[in-house]
Design goal:
Its EC number is 7.1.1.-. By secondary structure, the protein is mostly helical. It has helices at 3-23, 27-52, 56-86. It is elongated and about 50 Å long.
């Protein structure tokens, strides 16, 4: 398995995540699509740092994982708040959370 194959896998995963975010109305599934996109970026960073023989991409991937964890916490808190108030997790109902 070559490293360029893994770059193409990362591109494919990013496309799958983007389509998931764009096509599904459920907030939980959209959040999962965003996580797929972030993990594909991590894969690309690690592979490209391996190609360039340095650790910068791996360090950056670690920080992206930290940001992704914080994003999941905030996203799930918003989804739980929406579900408690409206009994739905539809993305269309997020406009109700404006000020």
């Amino acid at each position: 398995m070559t490293l360029m194959f893994l770059v193409y896998v990362a591109l494919g995963l990013f496309a799958i995540g983007a389509l998931t975010v764009l096509l599904h109305r459920s907030a939980v599934i959209a959040l999962m699509g965003v996580e797929i996109m972030l993990n594909s970026c991590n894969l690309a960073l690690v592979v490209l740092s391996q190609i360039n023989h340095n650790l910068d991409g791996q360090v950056m991937a670690f920080f992206v994982m930290v940001v992704a964890a914080a994003e999941v916490v905030v996203g799930l808190a918003l989804i739980v708040s929406l579900f408690r108030s409206r009994r739905t997790t539809s993305v269309d109902d997020f406009k109700l959370l404006n000020g």
